[in-house]
Amino acid sequence: MVEIEQTRERRSRIRTPRVAKHAGAGEEPNFTSTFAALGKLRLADRSMRVSASAVDINSGRTVLSIDDRVALPTASIGKILLLIEVSARFEDSDFAPYGILDKVPGASVGAAGLWQHLQAPSLPVADLAALVGATSDNLATNILLRLIGLDAVRARTESLGLTKTALLDLVRDTRGPDDAPQLSVGSAVELSWLFGALARGEIVNSIASQRVLGWLSLNTDLSLVSSAFGLDPLAHRGADHNTLLVNKTGIDRGVRAEAGALRGNKRAVAYAASIQFDDKSMHARLQVIEALRTFGLDLMEYVH
């Protein structure tokens, strides 16, 4: 009963009506550039779908809200939900976090990840989670999902009170009519809440939250929102110029998304943004990336 009540409270917090679509008056940043950049995208392509959210981690105040309840494809961002379940299992005495898992036929998927290029036929569970955090490793994701099970990830997601965010399937090179159309979906308001809760140590418990943040702090993809933060993509686990970041990106054809937690010398913010667009040209793709970078610039102004 206690767990059910906690789930209701989480859902209530996520669904609480937001205030105005920008931060307060005065000297505090108001994300005007973000609204202009995303608005320009929509004018150029009416079929484009945009969602964004930013929430102050300490106060819980929403400082940016753009269609943040809409569920959009988020590509690899959904792998965070797998990492949360893996981390939670570390607390189970029957689970072996350093147990060895083998590469198996049919699990390998192209594109993201290092393990497919390594000679090592087997790695510990903890190392596979680190690979998912660092390079969004597709092979490591699928091997972990074979161990954990997609149903367990879904159950964990529901227990967190998330209703529009989910990891839907294994990673696949091609998706047939019987497969989920997307790897994952998510709403910006839920994803920003999730990163804020991780930063506060509220997901499962503080140790499990810190473990997930540790894996995500290895992320080498700073190509979207976080391209504005000036950090070293290969080494940013510590604070650099009073800037500390943990993030996860999701990239697929026609999808660019990122969620994360950013701390500066004045404030800390949890954020998420997802754009689904017609990826018909490199120009269209670069416009989307530039708009996400503009969001990053406004976030930097907010935390510093």
Protein described:
This protein is an alpha+beta fold and 304 residues long. The protein contains 9 helices and 10 strands. It has a 5-stranded antiparallel beta sheet with strand order 2-1-10-9-8. The chain has a 3-stranded antiparallel beta sheet with strand order 3-7-6. Helix 2 (32-44) packs antiparallel against helix 9, helix 3 packs across helix 6 and helix 4 (125-135) packs across helix 5 (138-148). The longest helix has 22 residues, at 282-303. The model is unreliable at 17-26 (pLDDT under 50). Residues 1-26 are annotated as: Disordered. Residues 10-21 have a biased composition (Basic residues). One of its GO terms (biological process) is response to antibiotic.
Oligomer: single chain
Mean pLDDT: 91
- Record field, number of beta strands: 10
N→C terminal distance: 42 Å
The major sheet is characterized as: 5 strands, antiparallel
Name given to the CATH architecture: 3-Layer(aba) Sandwich
In the CATH scheme, the class would be Alpha Beta
Structural class by helix and strand composition: alpha+beta
- State the shape: globular
Please trace the helix and strand order, writing H or E for each element.
HHEEEHEEHHHEEHHEEEH
Which fold name is given in CATH as the topology? Beta-lactamase
Estimate the helix proportion, in percent: 25-40%
Radius of gyration: 18 Å
With strands numbered from the N-terminus, the spatial order across the biggest sheet is 2-1-10-9-8
The DSSP helix count reads 9
- Our count of domains comes out at 1
Residue share in β-strands: 15-25%
Per CATH, the superfamily is: DD-peptidase/beta-lactamase superfamily
GO molecular function: beta-lactamase activity
Organism: Salinibacterium amurskyense
Domain Beta-lactamase class A catalytic: 53-273
Region (Disordered): 1-26
